Amino acid sequence: MDTSGPVPPTRRLSTGEREQAIDRSAPVLPPALEIDENNYFENNAPPEYLDELARQCEEFVKMHGTGRIVLVTSGGTTVPLENQTVRFIDNFSAGTRGATSAEYFLENGYAVIFLHRQFSLLPYSRHYSHSTNCFLDFMEENDGQVVVSQQYQQQMRTVLRKYRAAKDRNQLLLLPFTTINQYLHTLRTVSVILQSAGPRALFYLAAAVSDFFIPPSRIPEHKIQSKAGGNKLIMDLDPVPKFLNRLVERWAPGAMIISFKLETDSEILISKARQALERYSHQLVIGNLLQTRKNEIVFVEPEVPETWIRLSDEQIKDGTEIESLIIPATIERHTAWIEQSK
Known about the structure:
Blueprint: H1 15-21, H2 34-43, H3 50-63, E1 69-74, E2 79-80, E3 88-89, H4 96-107, E4 111-117, H5 126-129, E5 139-142, E6 145-148, H6 153-168, E7 172-177, H7 180-193, E8 201-205, E9 212-213, E10 238-239, H8 244-251, E11 256-263, H9 269-280, E12 284-289, E13 296-300, E14 307-310, H10 313-318, H11 323-341
Parallel strand pairs: 1-4, 1-8, 4-7, 8-11, 11-12
Antiparallel strand pairs: 2-3, 5-6, 9-10, 12-13, 13-14
Helix pairs in contact: 3-7, 4-11
């Protein structure tokens, strides 16, 4: 059953338009320091529900004792343009990589904290929630009872059993976010809670995180009026501090940290991933190109050659998910990290 759906067409900018739109001479922002962390979290209020999420997370981590726990971040963050939000800037991500990876972590015995964009793809339900068919197309009425159509019985039974197994073992904790601020506050809170797990904790940071935001002091309270700026809307955005180094050094210093690097230019993918490793001193960057991200990725690690993981033509034809190869390779590295930490 194909649940991927058609990709809507997008207009590509001409070379001249790209050069005008992007300042390629702009310096790369340095990692955030303690003062950047303090300034951001003091001036951007936490979500009202954060204490409740922290309570759930503490109970979940305690429940899984000495087992392995992975924090999977998934989906894109939004940047509200008004305090009472009508418009916002969004990131390209449906949460496919994160939701799919979470399933394979669960099947390999990990407890999973799934920090996800609200209404993005979720483990297991992803097989049906973003189908090209309406969910009701999988159902039929039989003697007044609503049942799964015979042609979908086997596949749905398999997915249901995996979901029930994870739920019965309390392996999966779902934590939602929508805005960049909600994401960062929750990430820091969960990271500090996971300190107790030490090297057993794995961070699999697959979320598409906004690079810019509007500080609270400059965000308008009400909806921006369409004629407020004449024929143009000009926005002044600040860069989001690069907190990955704070995660590595302070928030969860014993954990293994994996980040993702998505590019559209194959010529710079490896160099950008290497720069991220050097800048933030974490353990692994998983690089992928927008055009081929479902069929190939590359592991970029300190002091070793790159490792490519690619689906064969036969695997692509059979519908193999590349995450079924990524997660075992990731777990091998996490096992080595735990042993090294001893």
